[in-house]
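Late entry, written up from scratch paper. The run itself happened at the end of the previous shift, but nothing got recorded in the book at the time, so transcribing now.
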Amino acid sequence: MLSLLASFAFANEISAGYLFPGAAAADKGSVNAGASGGMIFTGSSPISFVSLDASVAPTDRLGLRASFVTAGDVLPTDGVAGATFGARYLLVNTEKLRVAPFVMAGIGGAPGDVAFGGLAAGVSLEAGGPNVWFDCAVPLVGALIAPDGYAEDSVTAVGFPLTVVGTELGVNGKIGEHHHLRAGLASAVPVVSYRYEASRWYLGVTAGALPIESALAALSIEGGARF
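Output as recorded:
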């Protein structure tokens, strides 16, 4: 369920970058601010979540992002809450191909209880034309940080399992000037997204499901503005 929540909670850009920073092009000085909310459907009762997301591009290559999510209740007085902070740098920035190494840190847990942290580093990519393109974000190394007494080691290195579970990828299509579709995987969860994009704002919907024995599914609505 955690990967499903992560896939939907940090959705500022529709391309890869739900959880990890993506390689989308950005104008120097641009600022994005977004919010999303939705439900995760499990075998028992549905779980609601709300997230806030902001990103800024100090240069046309450097991108910074911060996100906050609470799930289980509208306000973080119950359930779980978390925040992430990420940065990426476009080493390759052409019309047809963009490649960006990224780093990310996160912290989360139940309010009033202990918090757990995480670090990750990897690479994001976008390739294709203006109407159809492929994207991916692949975490390569990471670490889980637990309070004393909750794990054998307070810091645990994570490699291949993080890559398998965390990789995000998809195929994007633009129809006309305003309509944007994406189908792919976000943290091992199959997802389909639609977004209506105007010059300074957007509205979208994302649906996904994790086909396991106790089926998980999620639906979210997101919106935001660009400055």
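Residues 2-226 form a domain with the Porin fold (CATH 2.40.160.40).
(Scratch paper discarded after transcription.)
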